Structures are given as structure tokens and as C-alpha cells.
Request: fold
Amino acid sequence: MAKLRYQIRDNPAGNPQSGITVTVETAAGDSLDTPSTDSNGLATYEQDGSPGPMVATATVSGRTLARDGRSLDQLGTWYANDAPVFWRALGNGVIPGYNDPATAAGDMAVSPGTGLQISVATGALVIDGHVYRCTSATAISIDANSSGSTRYDRVIVRFTREGQATEGACVLAILKGTPGAGDAPALTKSSSTFEVSLGKVRVVDSAASFVSGDITDERYATSLKQAYVPTNPNAFADASASYQAGDTFYIDSAGKWARLAKGTDGQILQLASGVPSWATKTFTMVVQEGDVTVDANVSTLDFDASDFDVTSSPSGEANVALAYGTSAGTPAEGNHTHSGVYAALSHTHTLSAVTDVTASAAELNVLDGITASTTELNYVDGVTSAIQTQINGKSDTSHTHTAATSVRNSTARDEVASGTASVTSTSGQVVTGLYADITLASGAVYDVIVMGGASVTAPAGGYIYTAAVIDASGSPSVSTFNGEGTETGSKWHGGSNVFGVTGNGGAIRCGLWFKVSTGTGTVGSGHVSVVALPRAVS
Reply:
């Protein structure tokens, strides 16, 4: 808070002068206030924040007295303009505990106000080596949002740095965001302006008021690099604690320093829900052989050098040899034998004794007597159904077809009357009446031929072209376009063909295509003929 007090006395007696008007202005000449002196000759000006350097003038007995805040002096070995530089060492942000050192509650906290207003609680902050004090809860308005998208604003304190027209000005303001941007605008921290955020406000479309969920507290947001450096234990969450060597300090969810008392020897530091704590942990291992667990929750493995032998192994594997003891709990001797553990030289094995074969003896005996080679057996690779059934479904090499099952030719013909069709496409279009839809029998293979012609008129200053088209399976086949210059009159096209079209029982469209270079062309009379020739079958 800016607070200046001026005392006016007469000369030479030095008696306080009451009722004298003091004019307070900014250094730029903008009027701020005109307080009058009281019975003690004192005139007081104060406001939250700061307007920057001020000039105070008063006229007494025909003399004008003036006091300019831009004047600089020394305090002993200190220069007055060094003070803000020193205070920058404390950082930037809200001062914890300014209102209540015991709890640090409410310091410049942002909360919903009335309608489209928010309220900033009392408190103080340091910004660029200067102090902003909020002496009473302050309401500040938020602009309405009718954009259709959510907007995010920031409640900030803005300081104007030295060298600017309004240097020293420190004000509470709203940094308005952009609808649909997804976040509030960034703070300015430049050579001319320095901003600190108190909170972020969500302004939904057509909002008429705010709730607590619309406000995000940013007073101690470390991501914004605005954490005020504490100077006394009251800035800590547990200010009454007795600190000792080995304690760990961290920033809690409220942005304040918190203390974690030291643990005991052997404990580890763990994190749960963002809060650190000490814990006693026992680390165990699982012993496996061939991916089969032999023992679990083993905390100790104790092998002597002679009992633990890592032998040569394939890449990615380790062969570990452990010597067997002669009795439970007794280590094995270095070089020893075991009696009664060897098989006789002459012995037999049954299939049931082989653990990695799942087939029965009867199933394996099916192979008895097979003389086919590996290549011959591989001929059945990929067979998905009975081979004989598949063979029975095939026709004999020599067979006949009846007339009832043969495919016949399909033909079609159509015409368009004179002057009834227009052409505007520059890539190609059909003209109503100059196409024919023919149906092709399912499974039959056809060679399709289109023949036709038309009388055309080109657009003024443009060109018109004619081509034959066959649209089979959604892929048009277009012959070379006929026509050039400002073509007018009959244009007969020899035809187009598509070979090997397989019918599906549906129709395909065949006809003439027309295109223009620009403008609108006209198709007069014309005709098209289509023939579909089935390929010979035996």
C-alpha cells in the first residue's frame, strides 16, 4: 500500500498549519488526491498498490512547497535506489503469514464474489523488490463470456519497471484469456513489466456467477516461479516443531515449507499421494529353475565360492551349478560320489516315462508302415477340409453344357432428342438418354463394346469433347476424347471396349461421355449402342 504523510508548519515559528490543501499527483502529472492537513498539520495519502513516484505540493503564506518522490538520497552508505535490488533476493510472491503468522490463512486468496466478480482477500506480496498490500477484501470484475467456448483469465498483480512512463505503478488487474485456448494467457516478465498470478478463473460460456471450482489457486505455484522465500519459521507449515539434524524439508500442497522428521537407520524415503515419508522395507527375491518357482520371498542367498559355479552358457542364459550336500544342511564335499543313483548299463524305457511327449503309443503307431517321403507328406500342407470331398465337387475333364445354362449376348441402344442436354463438366459426364444399363449374368465373363455418336455444340470460346465410357465394377474405362477447337456438328465416336468383365447378376452403365474446357456445351441428337459378348465355354 502506498502511504505518504506530509506535515505543513509556518515559518519561522514552526506551528502546525491545519486546513492546508496538499495536491498529490503522479510524476506524469495525473491527479491522485487533495488531502487537507489536520490539527497537527498532517495530510495523509494512501492506496493499495502504488501509482509510482508522486509529487506533493502545497501553498502556505504565498509560498509553494513541493516534494518529489523521484528524489534520491543516501542512508548512510546505502543508496535509496539500491533497496529494491536487495529485496529482489527474497523472490516474488505472496508473503505467507502476513495476516495470521500461526496459520498463514487467507493471504490474498481469490474466491467467488457477487455475480461476475471475484474477491481478493487481505494480505501482501513481494513483486520485483516492491511490496503490494491489500488492506481489505477487494472485489474485481470479470468480463462476460458469450463466445460459446470456455475462457480462462488470471487475477494478477502487475508492476511497471523503472524507465517506463508509469514506472513504479503496482496494481491489481485481470489478465483476460482467449475463448477456446484451453488455458490462461502467460504472465509477462519483461524489462518493462513484471506480473505475479494470484489465481486462475474459469469463465464458461454465458456464466452469470462463479463457484469455488472455477478458481485455481496460483499464489504458490512453483511452475510460475513465484515462491516467496521465507525469512522465519512462521512460513513453515509446522512452525512450532523442533528442528533437528537429519530432517527433510519439502513444499506441501499449500506451497509452504513442511518438515519431515528424520527416520531411523536403514529406512528408505517413499512417496505416497505426493507426500514423502520414511518406511522400513524388506527386499526379497524369487528363486526359479526353468521358469518354475523353487522358493519365494528369499531374503538371503549364501553361497561359498566352491558351491556356486557359473558355467559357460548360451547367449541370454546362465547355467549355474550348485553342489549337493551329503545330508540336510550339510555342504557337499568338493570331489565326491553318490551310491545307488546310476542306471544299469542295459535297461529300457517306455513311452510313458518320457515327460515331454503327449501322444499315446497307439497314436504314434499310426505312422508304422508309412513309406511316403517328407516332401510327399508336405503336399497336404494347407488342406483345410476333406480332400476326397473337394475332388468330388470338381467337373470331369470331358463334359457338356445345355442351352438352358449358356450365357447369351446382351445388347442395348438409346437416343437423346435434339437440344435437350447441356454439358458443364471439365472432367467428363454422361448425358441422360445417351447411356444404357446392361445386365451381365453372374459368373459369366464378357467382352463389352460401346459404339455411338452425337451432334454437339461447343461453348462460346471453348471446346467440347466426346468419348465412350464403360463403368464396370465402379472403375470407368474411358476412350480417347474426340473433338478440338470450337467443335460444332456431328461427332461420331467409333467406340470403346473392356475385355474380361465378370458379371455379378447386376447392371453396368455404358454410354457416351462429354466434357468442355469452359462454359456450357450442348448435345443435340445422338445414339449409343452397347453389346456384351460372353466368352466361349466348353
